[in-house]
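User:
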Amino acid sequence: MDATSPVGALLLCRAEPETVRPVAQLLRDRMLLAPAGDGWSVLVPEGRPWRGGDDGGTPAPDETVEPVDRVLGGWATALAVGSTWPVLALWWDADRAGYTLAAGFRRPVGYVWLADGTPAGEDEAMRTFAERLGLDPVLDVQDLEALTRPDPEADGRARLRGLLAVLTRTGLELPPGLDPGEPSHRLAAGADVWPHAERITWTGWRDAVLAELDVVESSRVGPWMRGPRARALAGAQLAAGLPLALWGASRRSGGWVVAGVLLMAHGALGLAYDRIRDDGPDGASPGNGA
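Assistant: Predicted structure:
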């Protein structure tokens, strides 16, 4: 990549599209969702809510002026909070390329390369990355650590390709045309040829919450969202979400505002689910005589 390199990003979720869909709606941004191999989904932003837009130029007056890595970090955290699956954000601009991995409440981990491929991160991040994704602690870690060493033949784009090559061993298979280094509009342009691709649209909080409740009902997660422990976790999510959203607002960081709002939404969902199903800790409904 060079000084004229475009800005772009991908969100890789280690979950099936039907699980990702209701959570992705809460980001309230235009995205494409598609399967990405065995147990993976990919979200491709259709908009350009980061500094410089798609072509690195001057943003419009009403555009968010955050760097792409900050926007994607907030999105990845928002998607992963309260979920059982990790989210990997890949991003690039004219100066750098990198990733952010978010998993639950744990602190996100990331790595950065300069545009010419020069490593600019901490080596330990790769080991944490491998651990959280359940990668092979020997073979996969060796390949990941190679990405942290100088290589005059590898630029930032090649580094991201190397990262993706390791993840193919976990079943990841990106749809055709999703190549790191391309601008966002070009990444989304090939959606018509992707099998089972769909557009994520915001239809309001009511539909988003109902959709997520449907996912909970059809999964094994439902029983764990009932009882005192579930209510305590939901309360903790609500309590943590508000200050995170306020912190993001104070820094004018839309991504972290979304993370806080989504955290509160997960908490509210947990409380609502427990109340709607009206089940006690033992799974018995008060009205069934148990």
